[in-house]
Each structure stands twice: as structure tokens, then as C-alpha cells.
Design a protein that fits this description.
The chain is an alpha/beta fold and 203 residues long. It is built from 9 helices and 5 strands.
Length: 203
């Protein structure tokens, strides 16, 4: 089983590529954002620590779960709490990823395990994944996609881009690069070629 970590800047088109992989190869896709959401629920492994951290903040719903918008507002305005939340949630997500990797390896039911994570490089997932793939899309194209699909302003896009790794850093850490600036057909052709290169046969 090959374990691939997929990353790239916001608006790079990672979801489209993940769906193509899911539809054409015997694979399992894991999304770091979904895992983070799970570990923060009342039944999740981080809940107790987060309840202590945000106990005095107005971020709770009646069922004890987080109001995501209110939590985001607190984190945006409080760097110290955001850092403490990251220090709780990110290691827990990584722990889940390690566990699921070990589980899938033992079950041997998929040819390909894929993790998509915005902080794949920053959180050193190269220590777990077999290799990292970078989805490259120019800033100009990403900007246009984000404005069209999410309604983001140029100012919001600029603020997001400032927090993300440079193209050079992504390329330096990733074994493979998929250029997603062209047509969907062109992008999928690159993915198909990489799968053939890695010896991963279609369904």
C-alpha cells in the first residue's frame, strides 16, 4: 500500500484531484480538516482540553459542541489561544493519521492511502507518508477560482496567501508535482501517469 500526502495552496484544486483518485483507484482518502473536526467533538479525544481552554468563551452550543463561527472569531482575535489550540489539535490529528495508516496497512484492503492536509509540510507528515505530492496552481489562477467559487475579495485572498508556504518550499518537500493550471483532462492525465509510474493499477 502506497501512502501519499497531497498538499498545495488554497484554491489549487485538490478536491477535484482527490475525487478522481477515489473514483478510479482502490483507495481511501483522509482529510485532515475532517479528522480535526472529529477530535474536537464532545466524544473526541481533544474535547476535555479544549473545554478547559475555551471554558469562559462564548463558543458553545447547547449540546456542548463548538459553534464553529464563534470559535473562529475567538481564534482570529487571540493569537495565544490559537497557538494553544493548535498545540492540542494538531498532534491529535497526527495521532489519528498514524493509527489509521497502521490499520489500513494491516487490513490490506486498499492499494492507496491518501491524506490531504493544508499543513502537510509544516506538521512534518513526511515522517508518516511514503511521499508527498504538490498540486501546483499559479497564484493568479487560484485567486480567480477563490473569487468565483467562494466570493472572496482580493484583500481576503491576499491575507490567506501571506500565511501559506511558497511554491519553492512546496516543491522542495514534495516528490511529485501536478500542474493544475490547464484543463481538467490535462490534470487527470498527469495523475493517471503518476499512478502508472508508482505501479498502482486502476480498479
Amino acid at each position: 500500500m502506497l501512502f501519499i500526502g497531497i498538499t498545495g495552496g488554497v484554491g489549487a484544486g485538490k478536491t477535484e484531484i482527490l475525487n478522481h483518485i477515489k473514483d478510479n483507484w482502490c483507495s481511501r482518502i483522509m482529510l485532515a480538516d475532517e479528522i480535526a473536526h472529529d477530535v474536537m467533538t464532545p466524544d473526541g479525544r481533544c474535547y476535555g482540553q479544549l473545554r478547559e481552554l475555551f471554558g469562559d468563551d462564548d463558543v458553545w452550543q447547547e449540546d456542548g459542541s463548538f459553534d464553529r463561527k464563534k470559535l473562529a472569531s475567538v481564534l482570529f482575535s487571540n493569537d495565544a489561544k490559537r497557538a494553544r489550540e493548535d498545540a492540542i489539535v494538531h498532534p491529535a490529528v497526527k495521532e489519528v493519521v498514524r493509527e489509521e495508516y497502521a490499520r489500513e496497512k494491516e487490513l490490506a484492503r486498499v492499494d492507496l492511502l491518501v491524506l490531504e492536509a493544508a499543513l502537510l509540510i509544516e506538521e512534518k507528515y513526511d515522517e508518516i507518508c511514503g511521499e508527498l505530492w504538490y498540486i501546483y496552481t499559479s497564484e493568479e489562477n487560484r485567486r480567480e477560482r477563490l473569487k468565483a467559487s467562494r466570493g472572496y475579495s482580493d484583500a481576503k485572498v491576499d491575507s490567506i496567501f501571506k500565511t501559506q508556504l511558497s511554491e519553492e518550499t512546496f516543491r522542495a518537500h514534495c516528490a511529485e508535482v501536478i500542474d493544475n493550471n490547464g484543463t481538467r483532462k490535462d490534470t487527470f492525465f498527469q495523475v493517471d501517469a503518476l499512478m502508472e509510474k508508482k505501479g498502482i493499477r486502476p480498479r
